[in-house]
Design goal:
Protein name (chain A): Autoinducer 2 import system permease protein LsrD
CATH architecture of chain A: Orthogonal Bundle
CATH topology of chain A: ABC transporter involved in vitamin B12 uptake, BtuC
Structural class of chain A: mainly alpha
Number of helices of chain B: 14
Shape of chain A: globular
Number of domains of chain A: 1
Oligomer: heterodimer
Structural class of chain B: mainly alpha
Number of strands of chain B: 2
Number of helices of chain A: 14
Membrane topology (chain A): Multi-pass membrane protein
Pfam families (chain A): BPD_transp_2 (PF02653)
CATH topology of chain B: ABC transporter involved in vitamin B12 uptake, BtuC
CATH class of chain A: Mainly Alpha
Largest sheet of chain B: 2 strands, antiparallel
Mean pLDDT of chain A: 85
Radius of gyration of chain B: 21 Å
Low-confidence stretches of chain A: 1-20
Strand content of chain B: under 5%
Distance between the termini of chain A: 43 Å
CATH class of chain B: Mainly Alpha
Number of strands of chain A: 0
Helix content of chain A: over 70%
Subcellular location (chain A): Cell membrane
Mean pLDDT of chain B: 83
GO cellular component, one term (chain A): plasma membrane
Chain lengths: ~350, ~350
């Protein structure tokens, strides 16, 4: 696998397989660009204020923390695993931060504690998936329940800050109402873009990124060619836990309050964004650029539908249909060739 | 994982295979006995703490509360055994429950038709899930995730903020939710009969044994002449139909339906199935185990209430239990593999 990857840029014949993979990926992203342009034109036609600063700001507020979780999810799905505990980790980190704040901790110690727990929770997933070889879908459904459960133990029915608690510091909660100095973007958007850039570099321009591709395509081959499969997977889950904790802190500050239900059910939104971005659920295929486009499309669509007063229910239908169409289109070519070959066989027998 | 471990070995003699299968079967059965024991011990411990727990009332609660999850766990088991997953069942339940309820509101149907309509709605959704999965060869995780959104959205559009209340449902219908025969709730009897039929069928009939073959190795199953596509389609169809029936029963039990009914049930059901010893990557597990898994999860819920432990602990304990169950399965399958190796070695010596 590694040899394949290394020869790809030189364009030697044995890289044909690989370059076809690239063309497929680019075609997918090309399609996403078209969809994005269509969405933007549609949005501008529906409402003159669509491409305004405030729309862009609120789109960032609404989807930024979800988009953050999509980045480590992309990496994890690339390796053929999945992390369904992301939204619960977001809730746990936010709840812990609220819990500590409620008990008189300073804001920074509370945030740091939340991030540490994020990394630890990720490590728990990582150990179970990477070192005991348990199926990640089962493990992370377990930790989905566990993390949310611990969050519930911490806060119960409490909303922090409640009666008698000091508010979170204004200097930090302003990220929910103010854009970055000298721009229209929300803090969450900027954080996402910076991390997306980093993730893109790691995934597409480093040995670590190539190792991810290799693991997703053929884990055994990857391990024979010197990739420490278990270690890589472990690291990914730790990073995922950490980033989700960051998202939890971000959401808590944005809302200036937190309850244990924060982010419930978002894991499936995150998976939907990543898959719509062209990342293969079987691993080995996908780009950060595709996920970025997917995030923007989902964010823009959500704003349009809200601005044009389409009910949340219809937005759900659209999310589902988009996801469905995306996988069907992605598999359409294979289906066509299958049908053709079957027809050819049928014709031959006659 | 076990398949990759056993794959390089020489073919196992038929005789060994039979005894090995018998032993595996015995172990799996031990799992069901273990689950039943866990439920009994749990009830005993809780009763020791709170003598009111062992009343007819709370036993009925245990049986009734676990019934719907258990019913959906039957269908989910069929699907998971084929190495697929159905995440759309929670939404299916919600849609079916509301439509049946709405028909009652308009006096359009009699009591029995309520169940028929519920099953039909679920069957159609299951058919769509199955067709897309099989025809386009798209991962069922993605298909049913998309359907989860789409159906919930359609449900929301139909519900349109309204709610079905007990007053508009025929008394004979809601009686199923609370009336008992010799102290056993009707709801539980209905589900128990279905579990018994499905459990018998999964052990006995050729077509249902083929589901296991498909889950163990889809390629090998196809090569062996098993109509894998048709079998998987039927598994989805049954899963959908049972979720639809669960919707009709939900209406009878709770007599109150809104656009959120059944949200999140899919992961609870998958948890129950996994706790019940069904391998998440297919090929093994029984309907009885899954149903007992559902019963155990519900018993824990009620035991916590009876033991006056804060309900906040509920989720955390369920999550920890799920992780323990997965780890236990892993340990069990490794043991079986080792034993198989030993038996094979013994035969070679002879």
């Amino acid at each position: 696998m590694t040899s394949d990857v290394q020869t790809a840029p030189t364009g030697r014949p044995d890289s044909v397989q690989r370059s076809i993979g690239w063309r497929d990926a680019l075609r997918w992203e090309g399609g996403l660009v078209v969809v994005l342009i269509a969405v933007l034109i549609f949005g501008s036609a529906q409402s003159s204020s669509f491409l305004s600063q405030s729309t862009i700001f609120y789109a960032g507020i609404n989807i930024g923390y979800i988009a953050l979780m999509a980045l480590p999810m992309t990496f994890i799905i690339m390796t053929g695993e999945i992390d369904l505990s992301v939204a619960s980790m977001l809730g746990l980190a936010g709840s812990l931060m609220g819990f500590l704040w409620h008990h008189g901790w300073g804001i920074w110690p509370a945030i740091i504690a939340a991030l540490v727990v994020g990394a630890l929770g990720g490590a728990l997933n990582g150990v179970l998936v990477a070192y005991t070889a348990l199926p990640s879908i089962a493990v992370t459904i377990g930790t989905l329940t566990l993390f949310r459960g611990v969050a519930q133990i911490l806060l119960g029915s409490l909303t922090v800050p409640g009666v008698g608690d000091p508010q979170f510091p204004d200097s930090m909660t302003k990220i929910g109402t103010q854009s970055i100095p000298g721009g229209a973007l929300s803090y969450s958007t900027v954080l996402f873009l910076v991390l997306a850039l980093l993730a893109g570099i790691v995934l597409h321009a480093t040995p670590f990124g190539r190792a991810l591709h290799a693991i997703g395509l053929q884990p055994e081959a990857a391990s024979f060619s010197g990739v420490r499969v278990a270690w890589v997977k472990f690291c990914l889950f730790v990073v995922s836990g950490l980033i989700c904790a960051v998202a939890g802190v971000l959401l808590t500050l944005q809302n200036a309050s937190v309850s244990y239900t924060a982010g419930t059910g978002l894991e499936l939104n995150v998976v939907a964004i990543v898959l719509f971005g062209g990342v293969s659920i079987f691993g080995g295929k996908g780009t950060i650029f595709g996920v970025l486009l997917s995030v923007i499309i989902f964010g823009a669509l959500q704003m349009i539908l809200t601005q044009t007063h389409v009910e949340a229910e219809k937005q759900l239908v659209i999310t589902g249909l988009l996801l469905l169409i995306s996988v069907i289109v992605a598999n359409g070519r294979e289906l066509l060739s299958r049908v053709r070959s079957r027809l050819a066989v049928g014709g031959g027998s006659r | 994982m076990t398949t990759t471990e056993t794959a390089p070995k020489a073919p196992v003699p038929a005789l060994t295979q039979a005894t090995a299968a018998g032993r595996l079967d015995a172990l799996l059965r031990a799992r069901e006995i273990g689950l039943a024991l866990a439920i009994v011990v749990l009830i005993a411990l809780t009763t020791a703490k709170n003598t009111h727990f062992l009343s007819a009332d709370s036993i009925q609660q245990i049986l009734n509360g676990g019934a719907l999850i258990g019913l959906m766990a039957v269908g989910e088991t069929l699907v998971i055994v084929t190495r697929n997953v159905d995440l759309s069942i929670g939404s299916t339940l919600g849609l079916s429950a509301y439509i049946v309820g709405d028909l009652f509101v308009h006096d359009a149907i009699d009591i029995w038709m309520g169940f028929v309509v519920g099953i039909a709605i679920g069957a159609v959704i299951g058919l769509i899930n199955g067709l897309i999965t099989v025809v386009f060869r798209v991962p069922s995780l993605v298909v049913t995730l998309a359907m989860l959104y789409a159906i919930r959205g359609i449900d929301g559009v139909i519900v349109d903020g309204k709610q079905i209340n007990a007053s508009s449902i025929p008394g004979g219908y809601t009686a199923i939710g609370y009336q008992t025969v010799l102290g056993v709730p009707w709801l539980f009897i209905v589900v128990a009969i279905i579990v018994a039929i499905a459990g018998y069928a999964m052990r006995t009939f050729r077509s249902s044994r083929e589901l296991y073959a498909i889950g163990s190795s889809p390629q090998a199953a196809t090569l062996a002449g098993i109509p894998a596509a048709r079998r998987v389609l039927v598994a989805f169809l049954i899963s959908g139909a049972l979720a639809g029936l669960a919707g009709a029963l939900f209406l009878a039990e709770y007599a109150q339906v809104n656009n959120n009914s059944g949200t999140g049930y899919e992961l609870t059901v998958v948890s129950a199935v996994v706790v019940g010893g069904v391998a998440i990557f297919g090929g093994s597990g029984t309907v009885f185990g899954a149903a007992l898994g559902a019963l155990l999860l519900n018993t824990i819920n009620l035991a916590l209430v009876a033991a006056r432990i804060s309900a906040s602990w509920n989720q955390a304990i369920a999550g920890a239990l799920l992780l323990a169950a997965i780890a236990f399965d892993r340990w069990l399958s490794q043991r079986v593999t080792r034993k198989l190796r030993k038996t094979e070695g013994a035969h070679r010596d002879i």
